[in-house]
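User: I'll paste a sequence; please echo it back and then give the predicted structure.

Assistant: Echoing your sequence first, then the prediction.
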Amino acid sequence: MSDADRTAAVSRETAETTIDVTLAIDGDGDAVVDTGIGFFDHMLEAFAKHGLFDLTVQCDGDLHIDDHHTVEDVAIVVGEAFTEALGDKRGIVRYADRKVPLDEAVASVVVDVSGRPFFEFSGEFSQPFVGEFTSVMAEHFAMSLAMNAGLTLHAGVEGENAHHEVEALFKALARALDDATRVDPRRSDTPSTKGKL
């Protein structure tokens, strides 16, 4: 990885999942995703599209049990890819705040690419499942991403339709991360009085 290209390739294999991820932060929004969960694939494609990240995700998970390990472990690997791709975070904006509506639903995300993982979530999902995706796993995805990308992340949803709530959350995550990881042309150093993040 070089700071110039801000890309990463991360793999993870456990007894529960085998995952390969590639990420380009400064991409075109292209995604090739196969997790075995149709709605989750759709959410990761939306995440890439709206964050302008180039993302590939290949996951072979224990879906005969449920979707938990697949969603959690993909979030872990995508988070690790962000950490690797960002390097020393020199010149990034660091903070961002986004709200994204989808019909009656709205999701909000406030993020600090701080290197200090913290996660807070408000709201709940109106239906327990969207297809084969367990709705609360959207919150768990955001938490696992935050823990492994070193993000301070406050997120929330409100609405009446879980499909809309989850999709708005993934899009808000994408837009906030795009904003926060963008390079500020006025800044040549790491955005911290400590000198590092």
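The mean pLDDT is 96. Residues 12 and 72 are 12 Å apart (CA to CA).
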